[in-house]
């Protein structure tokens, strides 16, 4: 039993290390990160906001990343306008009840999305219907959509304005990749907005 446990732990460490190594040498991914940071910083400087949406573990990512920006990440500075569309149970259940679960994010984008805002749409499969509807609503409102998916990209690869694909087909590893990238992007946005702590 102990050997099996150790083998499993070793395997999981190896897969995570291999994933981060693969991401670190992916020049296209590095270019996407820089582009996404630039888009986000430009939106914030224009008085726009960042919105985040996802289901399950991706909902946790949406809330986590919004929290890093509204509160702080590496250093004290003014809060940045970011909102997770996953948190208001009254809104979520009203939309789910009145229109169906597929609309829980799209309806919010329609309500508060403004031209020049940015939507971070997170789905490990790239096929979540409510995320795809949110992306479509974003397009109609002039909101830039940035997708986070796995290696395949799903439907989001063609539907999002920008789609960051973690090079894995395994849901937990895709989520680990998303978490790393979310932290990286939040830190870079903070640094660019406040010049490494100098507002």
From TrEMBL:
<feature type="binding site">
    <location>
        <begin position="55"/>
        <end position="57"/>
    </location>
    <ligand>
        <name>substrate</name>
    </ligand>
</feature>
<feature type="binding site">
    <location>
        <position position="183"/>
    </location>
    <ligand>
        <name>Zn(2+)</name>
    </ligand>
</feature>
<feature type="binding site">
    <location>
        <position position="68"/>
    </location>
    <ligand>
        <name>substrate</name>
    </ligand>
</feature>
<feature type="binding site">
    <location>
        <begin position="97"/>
        <end position="98"/>
    </location>
    <ligand>
        <name>substrate</name>
    </ligand>
</feature>
<feature type="binding site">
    <location>
        <position position="68"/>
    </location>
    <ligand>
        <name>Zn(2+)</name>
    </ligand>
</feature>
<dbReference type="GO" id="GO:0016853">
    <property type="term" value="F:isomerase activity"/>
</dbReference>
<feature type="binding site">
    <location>
        <position position="128"/>
    </location>
    <ligand>
        <name>substrate</name>
    </ligand>
</feature>
<keyword id="KW-0963">Cytoplasm</keyword>
<dbReference type="Pfam" id="PF13580">
    <property type="entry name" value="SIS_2"/>
</dbReference>
<feature type="binding site">
    <location>
        <position position="64"/>
    </location>
    <ligand>
        <name>Zn(2+)</name>
    </ligand>
</feature>
<feature type="binding site">
    <location>
        <begin position="123"/>
        <end position="125"/>
    </location>
    <ligand>
        <name>substrate</name>
    </ligand>
</feature>
<comment type="subunit">
    <text>Homotetramer.</text>
</comment>
<dbReference type="InterPro" id="IPR001347">
    <property type="entry name" value="SIS_dom"/>
</dbReference>
<keyword id="KW-0479">Metal-binding</keyword>
<protein>
    <recommendedName>
        <fullName>Phosphoheptose isomerase</fullName>
        <ecNumber>5.3.1.28</ecNumber>
    </recommendedName>
</protein>
<feature type="binding site">
    <location>
        <position position="175"/>
    </location>
    <ligand>
        <name>substrate</name>
    </ligand>
</feature>
<comment type="similarity">
    <text>Belongs to the SIS family. GmhA subfamily.</text>
</comment>
<feature type="domain" description="SIS">
    <location>
        <begin position="40"/>
        <end position="199"/>
    </location>
</feature>
<feature type="binding site">
    <location>
        <position position="175"/>
    </location>
    <ligand>
        <name>Zn(2+)</name>
    </ligand>
</feature>
<dbReference type="InterPro" id="IPR050099">
    <property type="entry name" value="SIS_GmhA/DiaA_subfam"/>
</dbReference>
<keyword id="KW-0413">Isomerase</keyword>
<dbReference type="InterPro" id="IPR035461">
    <property type="entry name" value="GmhA/DiaA"/>
</dbReference>
<keyword id="KW-0119">Carbohydrate metabolism</keyword>
<dbReference type="InterPro" id="IPR046348">
    <property type="entry name" value="SIS_dom_sf"/>
</dbReference>
<dbReference type="InterPro" id="IPR004515">
    <property type="entry name" value="Phosphoheptose_Isoase"/>
</dbReference>
<comment type="pathway">
    <text>Carbohydrate biosynthesis; D-glycero-D-manno-heptose 7-phosphate biosynthesis; D-glycero-alpha-D-manno-heptose 7-phosphate and D-glycero-beta-D-manno-heptose 7-phosphate from sedoheptulose 7-phosphate: step 1/1.</text>
</comment>
<keyword id="KW-0862">Zinc</keyword>
<comment type="function">
    <text>Catalyzes the isomerization of sedoheptulose 7-phosphate in D-glycero-D-manno-heptose 7-phosphate.</text>
</comment>
């Amino acid at each position: 039993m102990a050997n099996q446990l150790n083998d499993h732990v070793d395997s999981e460490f190896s897969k995570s290390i291999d994933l981060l190594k693969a991401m670190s040498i992916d020049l296209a991914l590095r270019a996407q990160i820089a582009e996404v940071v630039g888009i986000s910083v430009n939106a914030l400087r224009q008085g726009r906001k960042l919105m985040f949406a996802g289901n399950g573990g991706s909902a946790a990512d949406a809330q986590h990343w919004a929290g890093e920006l509204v509160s702080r990440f590496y250093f004290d500075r003014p809060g940045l306008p970011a909102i997770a569309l996953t948190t208001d149970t009254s809104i979520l259940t009203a939309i789910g009840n009145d229109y169906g679960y597929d609309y829980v994010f799209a309806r919010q984008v329609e309500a508060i999305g403004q031209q020049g805002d940015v939507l971070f749409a997170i789905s490990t499969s790239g096929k979540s219907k409510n995320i795809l509807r949110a992306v479509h609503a974003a397009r109609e409102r002039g909101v830039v959509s940035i997708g986070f998916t796995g290696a395949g990209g799903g439907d989001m690869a063609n539907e999002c304005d920008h789609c960051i694909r973690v090079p894995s087909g395994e849901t937990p590893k895709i989520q680990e990749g998303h978490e790393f990238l979310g932290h990286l992007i939040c830190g870079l946005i903070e640094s660019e907005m406040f010049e490494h702590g100098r507002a």
